[in-house]
Design goal:
The protein has two domains: 8-151 and 302-353, 3-Layer(aba) Sandwich (Rossmann fold), CATH 3.40.50.450; 157-297 and 360-385, 3-Layer(aba) Sandwich (Rossmann fold). It has eleven helices and 13 strands. It has helices at residues 21-33, 47-51, 64-70, 87-99, 111-127, 153-173, 192-196, 220-234, 272-284, 306-325, 375-381, and strands at 8-13, 41-44, 56-58, 102-109, 132-137, 180-185, 210-212, 237-242, 260-261, 267-268, 288-291, 330-336, 344-350. The strands form three sheets. It has a seven-stranded mixed β-sheet with strand order 3-2-1-4-5-12-13, sandwiched between helices. A four-stranded parallel β-sheet has the order 7-8-6-11, sandwiched between helices. The chain has a two-stranded antiparallel sheet with strand order 9-10. α1 (21-33) runs parallel beside α10 and α4 (87-99) crosses α5. The longest helix has 21 residues, at 153-173.
Length: 407
């Protein structure tokens, strides 16, 4: 068995907040506090960016009742960041760890956080400081490789699916005035979130009717034909689009120039949904509106998946167990077991294979027409959202026969 290092464990959170990232934090903290051989459990405020400013708190002094409530509290309790480490930062962080006797570092985040963790592990090794590093997966984009899915995804999929049903009923009621609704959701370069909008659909009449993802080139003329056809068939149309859909030339729908670029090079762009509403109204003569839920979609606790909450806690706990076993420079993974009943166990994978790699929707999850998902996707994603959606109803609307005369 690998020798246990004497020292403290430090944990941080990074990237976009989710409904379940705090459940992972509590998993890390509670598991770490159960190991008396650890000499303390510390937290980094605002991830590595806060660490560089010396912002560290003692998580061992937090009340257990606070930790219990924190498991069902959205956003990042320690504060998050989107900061790309520079070369000088790496040595500064290692020296800070040495000064605070930190021998274990757990970082909760997505692709960029995996890159940060990997670089930090390499820097500590180069300097000769014995530091063990582990990443805990967190991303609503569901785009980390080697894990069946990512904590955060089940909850945003549940939110988007339920909200799409709600928007669908609103559009159905208002179809004589504005019969087309376009919903724009998150997802960076992968369409997992948009695909999740179909999970509450039970009939052809239910929303969504069309889904467009960045894995496939977006054809505006085909889109218009799809909308026209669905409007003729159903009487109203709800479309879900990923925020980063591109045309056949690789140009972003709605505008190619970002209005902001973060330190990792990720651009933020104007709304494709707003652009497509104008196109539908102009070309088809159908009044269109758009909804863009924004950050609430990624951290709504009211619609959080109970499966997601439990698995987020699990990967936090397992990160501590793995790191104390001697594993380092790895990320926890969720492994779906075969069989008719859904069950996941955990494993780990080297960060060198995770950092800056994106897992996109496979072809078998997308319809041949490129405008919806397949039953294979529904089978994959349904267990992740944690149960049935709200049981809505439609009136049968039995018509009254005969004429109405004046009084």
């Amino acid at each position: 068995m690998t020798e246990l290092l004497r020292g403290k464990l430090l944990v941080g959170q990074s990237g976009g907040c989710t409904a379940v990232i705090n459940s992972s934090l509590v998993g890390v903290v509670e598991e770490a506090l159960s190991h008396k051989e650890l000499q303390g459990v510390l937290g980094a405020l605002h991830g590595v960016q806060g660490l560089l400013q010396g912002q560290i708190v003692d998580l061992g002094r937090e009340a257990r009742s606070t930790l219990k409530r924190l498991r069902r509290t959205p956003s990042a309790a320690l504060g998050s960041c989107r900061y790309k480490l520079e070369e000088g930062d790496l040595e500064q962080l290692v020296q800070l760890f040495r000064r605070h006797d930190v021998r274990y570092f757990v970082y909760i985040g997505g692709n960029d956080s995996a890159d940060t963790s990997h670089r930090l592990a390499l820097a500590a090794a180069d300097i000769g400081y014995d530091l063990r590093v582990f990443a805990v997966p967190k991303t609503i984009d569901n785009d980390l490789p080697f894990t069946d899915h990512c904590p955060g995804y089940g909850s945003i999929a549940r939110f988007v699916a339920q909200s799409t049903q709600d928007a669908g009923l609103d559009t159905e009621a208002m179809k004589q005035y504005d019969p087309v609704k376009i919903i724009e959701v998150m997802g960076r370069n992968a369409g997992w979130v948009a695909a999740g909008s179909a999970l509450a659909k039970k009939s052809e009449q239910d929303a969504p009717h069309l889904i467009y993802v960045p894995e496939l080139p977006f054809d505006e003329q085909r889109f218009l034909e799809d909308v026209r056809r669905m409007h003729q068939a159903v009487g109203y149309v709800v479309v879900v689009v990923s925020e980063t859909i591109r045309d056949g030339k690789g140009q972003r729908v709605g505008g190619e120039s970002p209005y902001f670029v973060d330190s990792f090079g990720h651009g933020y762009y104007e709304s494709p949904a707003a652009h497509l509403c104008k196109v539908v109204t102009r070309e088809l003569g159908l009044r269109a509106r758009f909804d863009k839920p924004g950050t609430i979609q990624r951290m709504s606790m009211a619609l959080a998946s109970p499966v997601d909450l439990d698995e987020a806690y699990l990967v936090g706990k397992m990160a501590v167990r793995y790191i104390l076993e001697g594993r380092s420079d790895h990320m926890v993974t969720l492994l779906r077991e075969p069989g008719p009943d859904y069950r996941c166990t955990t494993g780990s994978v080297p960060l060198a294979e995770i950092a800056n790699v994106e897992k996109r929707l496979p072809a078998e999850f997308l319809s041949a027409e490129g405008n919806f998902v397949t039953p294979a996707f529904l089978e994959y994603a349904t267990p992740l959202v944690g149960g049935a959606f709200l049981p809505y109803a439609r009136l049968e609307k039995h018509r009254v026969t005969g004429s109405v005369t004046g009084l």
